[in-house]
Amino acid sequence: MSKRLVMDLPEGAFSVFRSTPDELARELRLTAAVKWYELGKLSQEKAAEIAGLSRYDFIQSLSRFEVSPIQESAEELAGGLAREQ
To answer: Are 29 and 50 in contact (CB under 8 A)?
Structure first.
């Protein structure tokens, strides 16, 4: 199930991004999902769902925003590996 969100944007927003309303809506969804993922508010799976992408495509999109697909610190990764041994 999904909910519809309606936003009022100035006409200039579409010309700045050179996009149609549908294209801008997709870009806004992706941008929000990437930022929330980067902040640790969303998992990759949930961020991909919000962006309307597969997880693979979402991970591929992260490079465009210069966001790493790995959001754990080196210490967290090492701790996880140590627990698995």
So the answer is: yes
